[in-house]
Design goal:
The chain is mostly helical. It has 24 helices and six strands.
Length: about 600
């Protein structure tokens, strides 16, 4: 740390600091909690941040910071003190509003904002951060500092602001202390995330034994894994160790843990003579479709303008009543409630009962959330943006075949045309797989019709009120077709192979969501083309089912396809997230 007498000296000192380093300016008169400075100066998610009397800048904002320092030095005058907020402004000062923070860091922050730099100003709540200029202000700041336990505020702030009932009342009261214990021993959120994954995989292995002792051990380990899953986020917030890699690991490992546990339960049931692979795959398909409904709706509406939905207003009123908030969060069966239910039922019942409960619970939750989103969309008067339309097109995951149809199609007009065509495509594909004789040539014809309708659905920008339904319809069609064909094939191990294929494809779709939410856009088009798009993969599985009728080759083909999709999607995903310049974030999104 170095001391500068004026902004000009500070600019000279900053020039000597390596360009790839974060720097901070702190007024030497600063009085406040250490955690207030920590919030303002160490959060890696923003190019610049400020609290009263202190400012930090990441490497990307260093050039703007140097320019702002020089302008501030010229305005204040070399060696002259900064104008304090309560000072009487000169006539020159009256030409523009004085910044709320009159210290040099505060003036520099205002200059950065004037240049277009996004300066983060964290909410400090009861924390003290001040630059006193006289004895009375210094005494008031000292009193505020003494009256608030900064460490207690830091610990409370580690808990996610909006979480499920089970997580809030049954996990967070002690997991936050585990997070602090981890921070004091130098553990990182990524290490805790990895420990959570390993614990869940051991739980899946215990469930795969098919014994009562194995099921009990699996249920306990699953809950431990969930506690660690909560702890990693709390550790990130407690120590402000946000990272792009951490956000990706936290999000993708949740899906990997849940799917691995489903597979473990199915293997355990098979050891006891009960084949529940269809139920396991059905639960995974339903859960993935629930998520894409949430993602698609949020992307379609997060930047919509003129939002005037009466349904949203009713939801806000319900959120003002405490018990309705928790009831509504429990109805959607978020990850905490879901894993608690799975753990208890695993220990006390059978895998078949677990999957029945999952299917019923997730179906009810899907109906509740989808109905609410439909009502909001139909009663909302909003104009969709180009960014929202692009996000929906990316979530649709249309491959070369659908894109070729869209390129030559005139584009169907109508406010509800795109979702209606996508729904028709899904019904044609899933219905033919379910009701036509297995391996029928007509199923291949239905797949060709599915490709055609899929292209028509995305031929125009997805800006209609219900166009956010297009990606969920495509997900349901692809996953459902794979499930139905594998279940009807009567080929040994076809359903487990289909489970692997859907897992690999779902990973690609989740990865697309996390890239969009991170502000980096969808995966590159070459990846979508190589993976075939939803319509290409669906048509390929239909053709394989027709050609390899009642032969073990269908299982082999599904397995090879699953491995190929997983390898291509994983390699590109890992390459992107490891080398990505995406902003450092931590998942504070949906509860599921």
């Amino acid at each position: 740390m170095q001391t500068a007498a004026d902004p000009g000296d500070a600019a000279a000192l900053l020039a000597a600091v390596p360009a790839n380093s974060r720097v901070a300016l702190v007024d030497p008169r600063f009085v406040g909690h250490v955690h207030a400075l920590r919030l303002g100066l160490t959060d890696p998610r923003f190019p610049a941040a400020a609290v009263p009397g202190a400012l930090t800048a990441q490497p990307e904002a260093r050039a703007a910071l140097t320019r702002a320092l020089r302008r501030t030095g010229a305005a204040v005058g070399a060696g002259a003190p900064a104008v304090e907020p309560d000072a009487d402004p000169t006539p020159a000062d009256r030409t523009a509003p004085a910044p709320a923070d009159g210290t040099v860091p505060g003036r520099v922050a205002a200059a950065l904002e004037a240049e277009g730099v996004d300066v983060r100003r964290p909410e400090l709540g009861s924390l003290t951060a001040a630059v006193p200029t006289d004895d009375d202000q210094r005494a008031a700041a000292a009193a505020g500092l003494a009256s608030v336990d900064g460490e207690a505020v830091r610990l409370r702030g580690a808990v996610k602001a909006h979480d499920g009932f089970f997580t809030t009342f049954c996990v967070s009261p002690y997991s936050r202390h585990i997070a602090r214990w981890c921070a004091r021993r130098g553990l990182t959120p990524n290490q805790v995330t990895t420990a959570s994954l390993i614990t869940a995989l051991v739980a899946a292995g215990s469930a795969a034994t098919g014994t009562r002792a194995g099921y009990v051990a699996a249920s306990i380990l699953l809950l431990v894994s969930f506690v660690l899953d909560c702890t990693d986020g709390q550790l990130a917030r407690y120590s402000l160790q946000y990272s792009t890699m951490g956000a990706w690991l936290d999000a993708t490992f949740d899906r990997a843990k849940e799917y691995a546990y489903y597979a473990g339960l199915a293997l355990g049931a098979a050891r006891g003579g009960d084949d529940v692979w269809v139920l396991a795959l059905g639960a995974m398909v339903l859960q993935a479709c629930r998520h894409v409904v949430d993602f698609s709706f949020n992307e379609a509406n997060h930047d919509a303008v003129a939002n005037t939905s009466p349904t949203a207003a009713l939801s806000d009123r319900l959120d003002s009543v405490g018990w309705t908030v928790w009831l509504r969060r429990m109805i959607v069966l978020p990850i905490g409630e879901r894993w608690a239910m799975i753990a208890v039922l695993t220990a006390l019942t059978t895998p078949r009962v677990v999957f029945y409960a999952l299917l019923v619970g997730c179906a009810l939750a899907a109906c509740y959330t989808t109905a609410g989103r439909l009502l909001r969309s139909l009663t909302r008067r909003a104009r969709r943006t180009d960014r929202a339309a692009r996000a929906l097109a990316d979530l649709a995951d249309s491959g070369p075949l659908a894109q070729a149809v869209a390129a030559v199609a005139p584009g169907l007009r109508g406010a509800f045309t795109a979702p209606a065509v996508a729904l028709l495509a899904a019904l044609v594909m899933a219905g033919s797989a379910l009701f036509l004789p297995y391996g029928s040539a007509l199923t291949v014809v239905a797949a060709a019709l599915y490709v055609l309708l899929s292209g028509l659905a995305v031929a125009r920008p997805l800006k209609g009120p219900l166009d956010w339904l297009v990606p969920p319809f495509f997900r349901a069609a692809e996953y459902g077709t794979i499930l139905v064909l594998a279940a009807r094939s009567d080929v040994p191990h076809a359903v487990p192979a289909a489970f692997g294929l859907v897992s690999a494809v779902a990973y690609h779709h989740y990865d697309t969501v996390y890239r969009i939410r991170g502000g980096t856009g969808a995966p590159p088009r070459w990846l979508v083309r190589v993976l075939g798009g939803h319509e290409g993969r669906t048509a390929l599985v239909v053709v394989l089912a027709a050609v390899l009728t009642h032969a073990s080759g269908f299982t082999t083909a599904l397995t090879v396809l699953a491995v190929a999709v997983a390898l291509v999607a994983l390699v590109e995903s890992i390459r992107f997230w490891v080398s990505s310049s995406a902003p450092a974030v931590h998942d504070e999104g949906e509860l599921a």
